[in-house]
Write a structure and sequence with these properties.
This protein is an alpha/beta fold. It has two domains: 5-69, no CATH class; 108-265, Ribonuclease H-like superfamily/Ribonuclease H (Nucleotidyltransferase, domain 5). It has ten helices and five strands, in the order ααααβββαβααβααα. It has helices at residues 5-13, 21-36, 43-52, 59-69, 147-161, 175-178, 180-189, 205-216, 227-243, 255-266, and strands at 108-118, 121-130, 135-142, 168-171, 192-195. Strands 3-2-1-4-5 form a five-stranded mixed β-sheet, sandwiched between helices. Helix 3 packs across helix 4 and helix 5 (147-161) packs parallel to helix 7. This is Integrase.
């Protein structure tokens, strides 16, 4: 080890650094929460989670804590748009106009499709999000990107929420959403279609952010060898996202907590 005898005995006499039980608990919770997020939480979000558990720590304190424990966030990368419209299909008006903050649940939903790579080939995920709470209320994953994919996501959302007629569903102008089959499905549910402008990614920015978090905070952290593993991992993330992940737009509450708080206020 190339350590002299005098240096060794000096080390033995040096008093050990003692940490308190509270500090040890803080270290353990910080590591556990960071690991649960698959190493995706920055110091601000980690601090919110710690404070929510009653662990009072400053932003600077969390920065030092993350450095001490070696908690390093992986940076995100951009990804591509997957859907294009068939020019023969009808396009709905943009009823949303970047209004991402409805005042109650089941007023405005939004959806989109993204691709997911596995060791066995591609899969495609369609989601439906309630913009009031950012909660994923319906989703479907399959190996083909078809109208059936987005239809099943919408049917799951409708069966879960049973929204009143007049709900607005916002999407891009992909062929799956502009198809006659999908427009008929929305009409049968009493849902009004809304579509963003061509090339305007900010028209569905909240859904795009969800896909970014799903991929770069979760899926890309572990090998996705099979389609079945991908399906289960997407399920795990949506559960984590709805129940655990804190949202600034929700006053630092998870989507489910935000909806439950709203119901309590109404009652």
């Amino acid at each position: 080890m190339k350590v002299s005898r005098s240096a060794y005995y000096a080390w033995l006499k040096r008093p050990a650094k003692i940490i308190t039980a509270e500090q040890l608990h803080l270290y353990r919770r910080a590591k556990a929460i960071f690991k649960q997020s698959r190493n995706s939480l920055g110091y601000r979000e980690l601090r919110k989670r710690l404070c929510k558990e009653g662990l009072n720590v400053s932003e600077y304190g969390v920065k030092k804590l993350m450095a001490k424990l070696g908690l390093v966030v992986t940076q995100r990368i951009a990804y591509k748009v997957t859907t294009k419209r068939k020019h023969s299909d009808t396009v709905a008006d943009n009823l949303l106009n970047q209004n991402f903050n409805p005042v109650a649940p089941n007023q405005i939903w939004a959806g989109d499709v993204t691709y997911l790579r596995t060791g066995e080939g591609w899969m495609y995920l369609a989601i439906v999000m309630d913009l009031y709470s950012r909660r994923i209320v319906g989703w479907h994953i399959d190996r083909r990107m078809t109208t059936d994919l987005v239809s099943k996501a919408m049917m799951k959302a409708y069966n879960l929420r049973q929204p009143p007629k007049g709900l607005v569903f916002h999407s891009d102008r992909g062929s799956q959403y502009t198809s006659k089959h999908y427009r008929k499905l929305l009409a049968n549910y009493g849902i009004r279609a809304s579509m963003g402008d061509v090339g305007a990614c900010w028209d569905n920015a909240v859904v795009e952010r969800f896909f970014g978090s799903l991929k770069h905070d979760w899926l890309l952290k572990v090998p996705q060898l099979t389609r079945e593993y991908m399906r289960n991992d997407v399920t795990a993330y949506i559960r984590y996202y709805n129940l655990e992940r804190l949202h600034t737009a929700n006053g630092d509450l998870s989507p489910v907590e935000y909806e439950q708080n709203s119901l309590r206020k109404v009652s």
